[in-house]
C-alpha cells in the first residue's frame, strides 16, 4: 500500500479515527507523517506482551507465590517463577504444567479460557456443531463425575442427535418386539 499523501513511498504509519460513530483510516509514509505533524510511537515505547503478562502475574499474594513458585514444566524445566518474571513460556507442555496458574490469568486477559473467535463462513455450521458436541461431551463428563447418571443419559442422547443431524423433536423408530 502506498502513502495516501505522496503516493510514492510505502505506507508504514496507519491511523484510525472514530468520530461520531464513523471510522476513517489514513495510511502514510513516515516522512509525510512527520511533515504533517502526525504523532508516531517512538521505537522504545513498543508494546511487549511478555511484559504485560509478567505484570499481570505480579498480582499474586505472597502465599500464592510460595505455593506455585516451585511448579516446574516436566519437559523444558521452566519454573513458574521464571515465567512470572519473563511472561514467556518455554514450550507447549508449559500450558499443561501451569494450567491452574494460567487459567485465572487467561480469564482476566481474554474474558474466558477458551478461544471464541470468528468462524469461516464456508464451514460455519460444521464448526459450530463440533463445538456444540465438544461442550456436550464436557458436560457429560461432569455429570458422570457428579454421579448424575440420568442427566448423563440425556446428554448422551443429545450428543447422538447432534452427531447424526436429527432434530430434538424427532425420535428414531425402534424395532417392535
TrEMBL record:
UVR domain sequence ranges: 130-165
Protein name: UVR domain-containing protein
Lineage, uppermost ranks: Bacteria, Candidatus Eiseniibacteriota
Biased composition (Basic and acidic residues): 111-128
GO biological process: stress response to cadmium ion; stress response to copper ion
Region spans: Disordered: 111-132
Species for this entry: Eiseniibacteriota bacterium
Domain of life: Bacteria
Pfam families per record: UVR (PF02151)
GO molecular function annotations of the record: cadmium ion binding; cobalt ion binding; copper ion binding; zinc ion binding
